[in-house]
């Protein structure tokens, strides 16, 4: 195994992009299915475009603001894909939530990131537990393994959000899972139009290879599924 890693035929750790050999050894069937999927996409040509009589819906995606307000362009749906804060306390999260509430977007979706400890009871600080801290989410939709279907401009958009990430830090990091667990197994509803996560879901192989999508999209991890 060490030689294969040295030859760059296998990845060094779970967070590196899988090599060709990694894909083949982990699941030959999935590898073949992915090749067929790419071939179908190539033959299909450009993606489907909605009829001109349907107004477009603009989705604005941000993440990793880490307690800092950022410039946010206008749009119909605003998605924050986690890491609102650095310390993960209820007070810090509430400060970011209050900032999101001031933005004009009609629908505002929020999921937690690994730094948003308060959302995960396993990583919540003892101070927040002792003080019975709570969050005010009025005007926002927080998703944790949940699907919502808001109506926008006469169209219904199914949005599913989940915060799970591979284990990558101390116990204060929220929603971590080990390689032996499968939090994504049968998790994403088939009717999902927009999938929001803080780390790429293993069940979606096209998000695992950074050669397929920009690194910024891998970090944001919002998949707009056709």
Any chance you could write out the topology, listing elements then pairs?
Layout: H1 2-6, H2 20-26, H3 28-44, E1 59-62, E2 77-80, H4 90-101, E3 107-110, H5 126-130, E4 141-142, E5 146-148, E6 151-152, E7 155-156, E8 159-162, E9 165-166, E10 176-177, E11 194-197, H6 215-220, E12 222-224
Parallel strand pairs: 1-2, 2-3, 3-4, 8-11, 9-10
Antiparallel strand pairs: 5-8, 6-7, 11-12
What does this protein look like?
Helices cover 23% and strands 16% of the residues. The protein is of the alpha/beta class. It has 2 domains: 45 residues, no CATH class; 179 residues, Purple Acid Phosphatase, chain A, domain 2, CATH 3.60.21.10. The strands form 4 sheets. It has a 4-stranded parallel β-sheet with strand order 1-2-3-4, with no helix packed on it. Strands 5-8-11-12 form a 4-stranded mixed β-sheet. Helix 4 links the parallel strand 2 and strand 3. Helix 2 crosses helix 3. The longest helix has 17 residues. The radius of gyration is 19 Å and the shape is flat. The protein starts with a helix and ends with a strand.
Strand arrangement across the biggest beta sheet: 1-2-3-4
Provide the domain count: 2
Q: Helix segment count?
A: 6
Estimate the mean pLDDT confidence.
Answer: 83
Cα gyration radius (Å):
19 Å
- The SS-based structural class is alpha/beta
**Assigned CATH superfamily of the largest domain:** Metallo-dependent phosphatases
Sheet of most strands:
4 strands, parallel
Give the strand tally. Answer: 12
Output the CATH topology of the largest domain. Answer: Purple Acid Phosphatase, chain A, domain 2
Apparent shape:
flat
Termini, distance in Å? 38 Å
């Amino acid at each position: 195994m060490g030689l294969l890693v040295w030859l760059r035929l296998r990845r060094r750790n779970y967070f590196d992009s899988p090599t060709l050999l990694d894909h083949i050894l982990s699941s030959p069937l999935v590898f073949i299915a992915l090749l067929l999927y790419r071939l179908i996409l190539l033959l299909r040509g450009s993606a489907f475009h909605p009829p001109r009589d349907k107004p477009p819906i603009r989705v604005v995606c941000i993440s990793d603001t880490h307690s800092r307000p950022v410039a946010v362009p206008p749009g119909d749906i605003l998605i924050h894909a986690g890491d609102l804060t650095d310390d993960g306390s209820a007070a810090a999260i509430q400060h970011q939530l209050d900032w999101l509430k001031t933005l004009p977007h009609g629908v505002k979706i929020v999921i937690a990131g690994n730094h948003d400890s308060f959302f995960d009871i396993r990583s919540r600080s003892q101070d927040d537990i002792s003080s019975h801290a709570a969050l005010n989410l009025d005007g926002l939709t927080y998703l944790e393994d949940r699907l919502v279907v808001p109506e926008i401009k006469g169209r219904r958009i199914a949005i599913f959000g989940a915060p799970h990430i591979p284990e990558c830090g101390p116990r204060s990091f929220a929603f971590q899972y080990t390689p032996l667990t499968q939090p994504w197994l049968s998790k994403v509803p088939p009717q999902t139009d927009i999938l929001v996560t803080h780390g790429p879901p293993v069940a979606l192989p096209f998000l695992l290879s950074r050669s397929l999508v920009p690194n910024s999209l891998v970090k944001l991890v919002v998949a707009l599924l056709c």
